[in-house]
């Protein structure tokens, strides 16, 4: 659902200590267990507004109390770059 920016099998790495930056990607885990990578539009004390990576999902605004974690995405890496 995140193509073409993030393809199946690619790895997203998160930086929990990095500041959140509008127009860059963030990983969000909601209190209901849903986890997503989206573009951060804005954040404030009460809500976080996000835009889908692809055109199929659009914009969503989530109340802060529904967010368990939110982290800056440091990079998106193809599987060939991952060494196990």
List keywords for this structure.
single chain, mainly beta, 84 residues, globular
Describe, in plain words, how this protein is organized in 3D.
This protein has strands at residues 11-15, 25-30, 35-43, 47-51, 59-63, 67-77. With 84 residues, the chain is mainly β. Strands 1-6-2-3-4-5 form a six-stranded antiparallel β-sheet, with no helix packed on it. The protein is globular. The model has no long low-confidence stretch (mean pLDDT 91).
In short:
Helices cover 0% and strands 49% of the residues. β4 (47-51) and β5 (59-63) form a beta hairpin.
Q: Can you summarize the main beta sheet? A: 6 strands, antiparallel
Distance between the termini: 25 Å
Tally of alpha and pi helices = 0
**Low-confidence residue ranges:** none
Strands of the largest sheet, in order across it? 1-6-2-3-4-5
Tell me, rounded to a whole number, the average pLDDT: 91
Helical content (DSSP H or I, runs of 4+): under 10%
Number of strands: 6
SS-derived structural category: mainly beta
Itemize the secondary structure elements and their pairings:
Blueprint: E1 11-15, E2 25-30, E3 35-43, E4 47-51, E5 59-63, E6 67-77
Antiparallel strand pairs: 1-6, 2-3, 2-6, 3-4, 4-5
